[in-house]
């Protein structure tokens, strides 16, 4: 019963996820790579809504968009993962109660952003390849 109530609380968050996924698929490619931050503002907004909910995530996304301007230095600015483990994010981006999702189907909130970790000592996969192996044939 508790999971059903939790799911109902997640419906607005998942509607926000759906809108942001639609924006990222249809409108964002028209702009190209213009964001001064990594991840892009739309990816940041999506992560913020997934991690913090629709209201706080929208405020964080709007603040990020205001900071993304020609006079900003930009750089790496990830969404801080939630400190709790109540939710899981599916590969599509839906947020579900943790009890509803098995470990292989989704990632935890903290692990959802580990795929582009910027901690010292980690490198993207492309930089691990030797220069010769990364050239196009």
TrEMBL record:
Renumbered residue ranges of the record's region Disordered: 111-137
InterPro entries, sorted: Membr_insert_effic_factor_YidD
Function: Could be involved in insertion of integral membrane proteins into the membrane.
HAMAP family attached to this UniProt entry: UPF0161_YidD
Keywords: Cell membrane, Membrane
PANTHER family: MEMBRANE PROTEIN INSERTION EFFICIENCY FACTOR-RELATED
Organism: Agromyces larvae
The gene coding this protein: yidD
Keyword flag Cell cycle: no
Pfam family for this entry, one: YidD
Keyword DNA repair attributed: no
Protein name (database record): Putative membrane protein insertion efficiency factor
Principal place of residence: membrane
Membrane topology: Peripheral membrane protein
Family under the similarity heading: Belongs to the UPF0161 family.
Compartments where found: Cell membrane
